[in-house]
Amino acid sequence: MDVKKLYIGLIILYLIGSVTGYQIYGKVLYNSNPQADARVEAYKDSTLLGYDYTNPNGDYIITIDDSQLNDGDIILLVATYSNLIGYNNALINKSQGSSNVNINLYPSSTTTTTTTTTTSTTLPHITVSPASLDVSLYSGETTSRTLLITNIGNIIVINPSSDLGWISFSPQSFVINPNEQKQLTVNIEVPEDADEGDYTGNIYLSGYAIVPITIHVLKQYYTIIDSEWFSEGEEINIEDYTIKIVRVSSVYAKIRVEEDGEEIDTKKCYEDEETKIGNFKIIVEKLDSDEDKVRLTIKATEEYEVFENFYQYTLFENEEIKTGTWLDFNYGSFYIYLNSVADTGARIDYYPTPSTTPHVVTCFINEDCKIGNDILLTIHDINRINYAGAGSIICDLKSKKQYLVYKTNVKPTEISTQQQPSNSGKIYISIAAGRIAPGAKVIFYVRDYENNPIRTGTLTIDLPEPITVDIFEGLATVRFPETIECPLLVTASAPGYQISPQVFSCEVGELYSSKMKGNCSDGQKNCHHGKCEVGVDCGGPCEPCKFSMEISPTNPTKNETVTITVKFEDEPLDDVTITVTKPSGNTLTLTTEDGKAEFEVDEDGTYTIKAEKEDFKTVTKEIKTREKKLTIVVSPPNPKIGDTVMVVVRDERGAIIKDATVTINGATYSPDKSGIIRFQITQKSYTISASKPGYASVSKTITIAPPTTIAQQAGGNIDWWWWGIGLLLIGGIIYMAKKSYKPLEKGEEIPKKSLQTLDEIKDKIDIEPHFPEK
Question: Are 304 and 225 in contact (CB under 8 A)?
Fold first, then answer.
């Protein structure tokens, strides 16, 4: 056999075998420039599979026998040149036949000798301390934390990243050598407008480690009200906000917060607890249900101003009041009695109603002293006459509402129907038409307790020049002068009835009309300015008044609280009877307070809710429960082969469900104590399912995207593309071999380079060449 033909045949066989293997190719770059003569080695499980040197354009290509590879294998690529080193990973996808991987070189702290002799190496592996981060910050604050990274594998490059947008790193990229430790600074900057709450995410260290991070975002709160007592029904005006004490019980205080008159929320605030309502934190320090009072500290996210003109009406200024003096508000609405004085303060007895036991209030000099819901007393000076407490005070008196105040040394006569055996002798006054204003004409209703018109009598308006008009069949017409001073005292008198004074404010047209007992089904037309109203009778039949009922949520889940809101002409309607019929047929009866009632859903199915109130049309609605929703969260959201993935199951509020049943590709996984499941990506796709009693089951599929190859970018099929290239390459080699073939002269030796190449080929394919005898 001719030696030259054998030599060429062996070369062709070697090249054909090389082309038909799996190929890993790409560029080696240093500072974004191609690096020539760099050595690239490919490892699988510490075993060298092949190597190549880059050409002047930085290109390399390593061909690996298919039998050594499986789909999903991760091949470590290490590139070296002088004191430069770099690495990357190649994901094996045998259906594509190749992987395109570029490698960046970085300076190494240890010199690497480039030789043809390669020793085994270990795959990259690192440890991180601490293993997780937990940080608390206020909105707008910044801080940093340090991670200590130890490399117990081969040299690697780390490019840290995070799925939380508030995090940056220093350095942004770094090389860490075997057995080396480096510090990574994690910078955290919380935006000014970040909402209060817990934010969870991860820090990714180039796929070699995941560090969970939790950021607790806090709000800076400023103390607006510091440990002050408030009474049930009292309102606190804080710029555009109104905080109202709706109810005080022995267990909680119900508090409503409004902005520009629109309700933000109403919540039950419990003692020694902080309750967040809108921009405010309400801290209930003490409850006094006997006095219907609560002591509050109120904090806000901004330094709001509590309006000083909250007590907007000045009743008198720098007035001297002597001990033993009674202050009578609106002819017996309530009383204040100056009991005694001391050097630093005074004792005030407050009578909320004429017949009640007084509340004792201690007011100190030069301090604002709140009395009841509406009165603010400020003492400027005290003159004590003797040690028994006699003397006087110089003070200012302000109120939230307009009042007429009278001073007397004798306890005022109680203008109350309690002096009579029944209410039949009391007269009620309300406005039928018009508004109290300068020059205005107003028609007053004058009726008794049974809503019967006063047939005859007189109505008197207390002005500098009093106005007295006759009452005829329950009506009295008044034309006001061009100048009036409010509030106004209006008195009605009639034979056989008690003289009844009432107070009206200016620009008010319906004050006290609610005191009249109305009846929308009494055969009378109940209308006022074209609207159906309680307490107004004009004659003629009409439909019952209608209220609105809103239910939230309309599709609740089990154990969720349902709120029913009832309003009449956009105002909350109290004492509405709510009957809730459950899916089982059991019923629950509620009564609205401040226009609202609540109940907890404890059965699945359809609930029927009926609202009823005398004089109003009954309203009935239905709501149907739904299953709670689960959400599967995968982090990172687009993992690669080899990544460690975290899976958590959350409810609709974002809370982690730790006891959900989770299956991944049919296998059941148990979460850790934090509710997290971790697993490594080794397959092309995963189907994750989660379920829990009372919740709708949910599934999520994640697909691992294969790397894009040159052939895919060209839009061709990888098999015929590579076979075409291979056939062209083989044809070219054969053509060049024939063209360059020249027979050896007699006695001429085979070139040394050819013998070296032959020896390499022989070692690879285990064929012993045969040379004919001369």
Answer: no
